Amino acid sequence: MKNLFSVEGKVVVVTGGSRGIGEMIAAGYLANGAKVYITSRKATVCDATAQRLAETWSGECLSIPADMATLEGIEGFVSELSSKESHVDVLVNNAGVAWGAPLEEFPEVGWDKVMDTNVKGVFFLTQKLLPLLEQNAAHDAPSHVINVGSIDGIKTPIFDNFSYGPSKAAVHHLTRVLAAHLIKRNIIVNGIAPGPFPTYMLSAGVGAGGDTENTDWDALGKSNPRGRVGSPEDIAGLAIFLSSRACGFTVGDIITCDGGSVVS
């Protein structure tokens, strides 16, 4: 009972880990003794974040830049990871993009880019990492996959990002489908549906241009039932639960982390 939430010594992969929610989740694992690999498309940003996280939390954080929207990018990532690790305990499929445009002007590229990254990438990275996820998975010590969706996949988004909400709804259902198949292989799959967090994506959505440092998060948080936006502890704590012994019997669920937005 004392170690219900321990992730110490686990090998963790966090996609989209160079900023935003992915960086928050990666920090949580590092602070609690896990070894973390992060990936994102921009190599310089990914490398810098990994170095900063490792120094901040005195942990082992490694960068493997890759594009999770293409099979080539996914296979390259898996190949490099496989040369460094014989197994993976936790996969956090967090990489995601959005595209905003008025309904009449919404482009095909805005549909395809979002679906490729947010849905196709989740499926194929999980597929390609199955050998590493299964390597140490056991009945009493399963591996874990966490798919990061969004409350926009549950309720109607407030922004004109017409492919984003449907992509996240697809992630939620894909989570249930994968959970049903992989539980038989000692891999537990669950999902998180975040609400408002102080991220580049939300800053851009509210018109602050992605400037997270100067976005008025206090003002934005006042519209949330909890009276604030989410914190790193909120999202990292949920991820840690979903990859610890505490989550031995929770399978295929989508847990909101939104300060009460959906229920309110």
What does this structure look like?
The protein has 264 residues and is α/β, with parallel strands linked by helices. The chain has one domain: NAD(P)-binding Rossmann-like Domain (Rossmann fold, 3-Layer(aba) Sandwich). 41% of the residues lie in helices and 13% in strands. It is built from nine helices and seven strands; from the N terminus they run E-H-E-H-E-H-E-H-H-E-H-E-H-H-H-E. It has helices spanning 20-31, 43-57, 71-84, 108-128, 130-135, 164-182, 200-205, 217-221, 232-241, and strands at residues 11-15, 35-39, 61-63, 90-93, 143-148, 187-194, 254-257. The protein has a seven-stranded parallel sheet with strand order 3-2-1-4-5-6-7, sandwiched between helices. The model has no long low-confidence stretch (mean pLDDT 96).
List keywords for this structure.
single chain, 264 residues, alpha/beta, Rossmann fold, 7-stranded parallel sheet, 7 strands
Radius of gyration (CA) equals 17 Å
Helical amount: 40-55%
The backbone outline, from C-alpha atoms, is: globular
What's the helix count? 9
- SSE pattern, N- to C-terminal: EHEHEHEHHEHEHHHE
Task: Tell me the number of strands.
Answer: 7
Q: At the fourth CATH level, what is the homologous superfamily? A: NAD(P)-binding Rossmann-like Domain
CATH architecture: 3-Layer(aba) Sandwich
For the terminal residues, how far apart are their CA atoms?
A: 34 Å
Q: Would you tell me the structural class of the helices and strands?
A: alpha/beta
